[in-house]
Amino acid sequence: DTAVSQTPKYLVTQMGNDKSIKCEQNLGHDTMYWYKQDSKKFLKIMFSYNNKELIINETVPNRFSPKSPDKAHLNLHINSLELGDSAVYFCASSQGSEGRGYTFGSGTRLTVV
Amino acid sequence: QKEVEQDPGPLSVPEGAIVSLNCTYSNSAFQYFMWYRQYSRKGPELLMYTYSSGNKEDGRFTAQVDKSSKYISLFIRDSQPSDSATYLCAMSAGGSNYKLTFGKGTLLTVNP
């Protein structure tokens, strides 16, 4: 039973399209995150929700919009996709802020052509 | 200066070697230190977790944190081909700050 699951695993789409990535966690954690990993493997936080409230919003183009319908779900919608959006997007969850128990999903590999 | 610096390697060692991976950081607010292992096309998985300065050992893995030098290390003893992966250091200030700040990762290959 996967702890943090993301769909889809792979996404290939054309520039200008709009796409969504979904994430669900069954760990009972109160905080969920979106991280972006670029081609050089650098992982950087994009957003975080704690109990459905947005608590982290890093410098991310406003074409990216997260939504958390409940504690167990966090979705990412991307408008007007650009070539530079190609990356692996990881969802994660945690209980508390100390880092212990921070659990990542297996990632969504987005390719914009 | 980046908040967390990590030599990206790549690092290639023979099976059985001792591997040393390191990160330095500049933010003195960091209190929680982690090492993640990431296999190709997988998500990062937590390998070691340390609070504040000190050592922690788990099987073949030892994590060390020296807050006075702002330096953390991961040692892998008797390295195995299955240890071949990217190793990422990560840090958190905790409290109201929920984000993890990662190093760029070191690609390790252990050759049989």
Query: What does the main sheet of chain A amount to?
Result: 7 strands, mixed
The biggest sheet of chain B, with number of strands, parallel, antiparallel or mixed sense and barrel status, is: 6 strands, mixed
The largest interface is: A-B, 28 and 32 residues
Helices of chain B, by number, come to 0
Low-confidence stretches of chain B: none
Order of helices and strands of chain B: EEEEEEEEEEE
Which class of secondary structure composition applies to the elements of chain B? mainly beta
Approximately what portion of the residues of chain A adopt beta-strand conformation?
over 45%
H/E topology pattern of chain A:
EEEEEEEEEEE
Low-pLDDT stretches of chain A are none
State the shape of chain A: globular
Explained architecture:
The complex is a heterodimer of chains A (113) and B (112). With 113 residues, chain A is mainly beta. Chain A has strands at 4-7, 10-13, 19-25, 31-37, 43-50, 53-57, 64-70, 73-78, 87-94, 103-104, 108-112. In chain A, the strands form two sheets. In chain A, strands 2, 4, 5, 6, 9, 10 and 11 form a seven-stranded mixed beta sheet that branches. Chain B is mainly beta and 112 residues long. Helices cover 0% and strands 54% of the residues of chain B. Chain B is built from no helices and eleven strands. Chain B has strands at residues 4-6, 11-14, 19-25, 32-38, 45-51, 54-58, 61-66, 71-76, 85-92, 101-102, 106-111. In chain B, the strands form two sheets. In chain B, strands 2, 4, 5, 9, 10 and 11 form a six-stranded mixed beta sheet that branches. Chain B has a five-stranded antiparallel beta sheet with strand order 1-3-8-7-6, with no helix packed on it. The N and C termini of chain B lie far apart (38 Å). The model of chain B has no long low-confidence stretch (mean pLDDT 94). At the A-B interface, strand 5 and strand 10 of A face strand 4, strand 5, strand 9 and strand 10 of B.
